[in-house]
Amino acid sequence: MATIQLTKIVAPSLWGWLGDRTGQRVRLVRFGAITGSLFFAGVFLEPGFYGLLLVMLVFTFFWNAILPLYEVITLRVLGAHKDKYGKVRLWGSVGFIGAVALVGAMLEWLPIQYLPWLLLPVFAGIAVSAFLVPSERGERKIEAPKGSLKSIVTHPAVLTFFLMNFLLQVSHGAYYTFFSIHLEQHGYGKLSIGLLWSLGVIAEIVLFMVMHRLLRTLSVRQIVLGALVLTMIRWALIAELTSLVPVLVFAQLLHAVSYGVLHAVSVQYIQGYFGEHHHGQGQALYSGLTFGAGGALGAWLSGFLVDGYSTSAAFWGGSAAMVVAIVVTWRGLRPPPSG
């Protein structure tokens, strides 16, 4: 399972570079969807530990290429209506809830060995849907960019942006790794845990529906700092007040802020700073450095805190990471160029 995070650090940068270099992002998405699905079929060979490790490495190398490229395609299609990004992105959250509900229900009466068979139609559907996205006629090799990628990445505001998101994902390490265990330790049953996870995603969906209004009324700096403060409070509430159901429900509703708000802002932030020529690589760096490296480090560090202290300590660690993120953001974050 760690290979998912490993290839998420490396693969998006390569595919983002190819997308920017060739301009053929839709074709790359199709290639990644088909090739990734074919390599996933290797699980049916029952190849043993090292064989399965190889299957996962190759499969996720292609699979992790799809989402960053799709983000770029989506924003290009939206054009001047980038504030409507949330209304498109919410369908990913709807799909997540649908998959959890449907596959979870089917596994109640099917052995877990059938899981790969349940996933194949999903992969096939993604591959087919990729062919429903038209390739733009003008989508050809882009002219030489104005300014190098290095000059963009080393810009103080961009460095602040990446560090902020890195720390944000470090803070999520305890949540994605130990939240269910934490709830079990406080007496919550499997149904309650599933509902609480779903509540967070539902809050995220609602947020994506109204995000365009938020962007019109508040500045990027105000939105980001407010979201970071609420995320810090969220981890503290989960750490100390888990047994109080209303408080825990409120903490899960804050998932709309800790993920939804910050992701929607970040995707547009990247487009503003990296522009047309480096957009794919910027999106890839965002995916790799934050969700990949930040998420992996957060999970690893939270494991030490759980092993040495408790699951509550891991969430306090996430809250501490957010304190650092707030200071970094307050000092260095600047709004992205418009357009």
From TrEMBL:
Key word Nucleus present: no
GO cellular component, one term: plasma membrane
Localization terms from the record: Cell inner membrane
Membrane topology per record: Multi-pass membrane protein
Location of the Major facilitator superfamily (MFS) profile domain: 157-339
The protein's name in its UniProt record: Putative 3-phenylpropionic acid transporter
InterPro entries the record matches: HcaT-like, MFS_assoc_dom, MFS_dom, MFS_trans_sf
Major subcellular site: membrane
A GO MF term: lactose:proton symporter activity
TM helices/strands, residue ranges: 28-45, 51-70, 90-109, 115-133, 153-171, 191-211, 243-262, 283-301, 313-333
UniProt organism field: Marinobacter litoralis
Keywords: Cell inner membrane, Cell membrane, Membrane, Transmembrane, Transmembrane helix, Transport
